Amino acid sequence: MHSLKVLILEDHPFQLMALHQMLNANGVFDVLTADSVEAACQTLSRRGRVDIAICDLQMDGADGLALIRHLAEHQLAAALVILSGAESCVIDSVGALARNLGLNVLGCIEKPATSLVLHQLLRRYLEQDHAELPAAGPPQYPQLLNLTTAELAASQEQWVAHYQPKVCFDGKLVGVEALVRWQHPSLGILSPAQFFPLIEGAELFDVLSWHVLDQALAFSAQFQSRTGKTLPVAVNIAPHLLQRDDFHDQVKAALERHAVAASALTLEIVETAGNTLTNQQLEGLLHLRILGCQLSIDDFGMGVSNVQRLLELPFSELKLPSEFVRGMAHDGRKAAVVAGALMMARRMSLNVVVEGVETADDLLAIKDLGHPVMQGYFIARPMPGGELIDWIDARNSAGCKQRAYA
């Protein structure tokens, strides 16, 4: 971890020294320190962007919120750790605000920090899949900024689907989620956070969505041909696509083109306020549900219109985001939210998928609340189709008993 650059905002000398020593013990030696927001801003101005900012909240003068906003507005930190002696509800609310501002929040923890917790946060950053981060700001690679819309469209064959497994507690694979990557010939594998702003600016999001859907269905068909078994696939759909009158027809045509059963496809919709559907468009979704497709509300609980959308649209599944799951084993408030969502889902006859399962503690906490389907780094990272086949074969060889989580 020696290559990481970390900024600490902490006005208590002993705690500042302790954090510095813990970072050193974890192999991080490029450590910037500041005892005020003003000093932190000056340091960032001199030394530039950091990998991780560790931010206290309660300080003399400007509080930590001022630095958090500064980090977000000027994109000066790839990730943020909030470390404070404030009430846990305040810390969590600050974390939610930071995410809304576009920051990647690694953790919201109460003082004092321990070396083990700090190590876990550093490891999380190094292993993090930035496909799940908000696409705020320009791409990291300046050479991409000069691409024309035509050149971007011509690169779509380099947009490849990676697949993250979804499993039950007994270890059974129940499906995969397709997540796009740009396999750039000179820059390597790029995550969505690195190129989505370009795609949106060029108004190619529809092209990208249909391209990933087509790849996912093709892979499911290949899996069926190879194994004789159905591989359910989930594909993210931009909410505005639902407003297209031909959405239902295009999805149905793609299923027929690849000879994939409608029941093997889940369309994941990130709910957003202001995306109302006409009766004709709602009828199109109902046609897909009648056909057998599944409809999932993604990032449930992160927006303002979730419950309303659940009542309006024919969802069959809800997905709980990693923000609720991460650290749930040690946070009763998060556990209560997840338990409430699971209870509501059962009463509405909805399936539940829990995202962001990163540790054994997270998994055990979920087990205490029921046995929903899970996905996350503790299970497996997103991977190319060939690697997924190898992963499935290895699990089958190991036997279900060895891979069970129950």
TrEMBL record:
Protein name, entry field: EAL domain-containing protein
Keywords: Phosphoprotein
GO molecular function: cyclic-guanylate-specific phosphodiesterase activity
Origin organism lineage: Bacteria, Pseudomonadati, Pseudomonadota, Gammaproteobacteria, Pseudomonadales
One GO term of the biological process aspect: phosphorelay signal transduction system
Phosphoprotein keyword on record: yes
Gene3D superfamilies given in the database record: 3.40.50.2300, EAL domain (3.20.20.450)
Residues recorded as bearing 4-aspartylphosphate in the entry: D56
Domain annotation Response regulatory: ranges: 5-126
InterPro entries linked to this entry: CheY-like_superfamily, Cyclic-di-GMP_PDE-like, EAL_dom, EAL_sf, Sig_transdc_resp-reg_receiver
Nucleotide-binding recorded as keyword: no
Ranges where the EAL domain occurs: 143-396
CDD domains according to UniProt: EAL
